[in-house]
Each structure stands twice: as structure tokens, then as C-alpha cells.
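Feature request, filed as a ticket because there's no other form

It would be nice if the structure record came with a short human-readable summary line next to the C-alpha cells. Right now we just get the raw output. Example of a typical job, pasted below so the devs can see what we mean:
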Amino acid sequence: MKMISRFRIKDTFIITDRGLVLAGTIEEGVVYFGDYIEFDAFGKKRKRRIKGVSSMRKADDETMNMGLLIECENESEMLELRRWRPENELGILTKH
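Raw output as currently delivered:
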């Protein structure tokens, strides 16, 4: 397992009929559909596959804001992570 990117998680939200999104900023590297993100939430280390990536950059800012749609284990985990307040949790992205 090799780190390919670092992602600072700032918030979570649900897209109806799609799933949970981790919102934040890329600190290093590049993110691709199919990569995995590892992060700690509620004292539990999690590794989830990324099933969608979207990005937005403000015209007056160099920061790349991103949303990573992740694969949750089940509906219960998705709702649990929606209640999570990440406070700039660092996510490590890997290929597998």
C-alpha cells in the first residue's frame, strides 16, 4: 500500500441516491476514481473506495476544493459518517 495523495477532510454530506461525500482539499498528489481513502472517524480507522470525484477552484484562490464520493459499508455507516465532524482530519489516498 503506497500513499499517492493527502486529502484534508473538512465536512461530509449525502447526495440522495448516490451516497456519502467527503468534502475538503487536496494537500498533495492527485485523486482518481477507484483510489482508496483511509481516515479515522469516531476512533475507528476506515478504508473506503472512491466512486466519484468532483472539484471546484475559486477564481481568486489557488486551493482546490474537492468532493470524494465514497463507498460505505451500509446505510448505517453512511448515516454515522454524515453526523461526523472531521475538523480537518487527514485522509491518506492509496491505490489499494
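Something like this underneath would help us a lot:
Strands lie at 3-15, 19-29, 36-41, 44-57, 64-70, 89-94.
The chain has one domain: 3-94.
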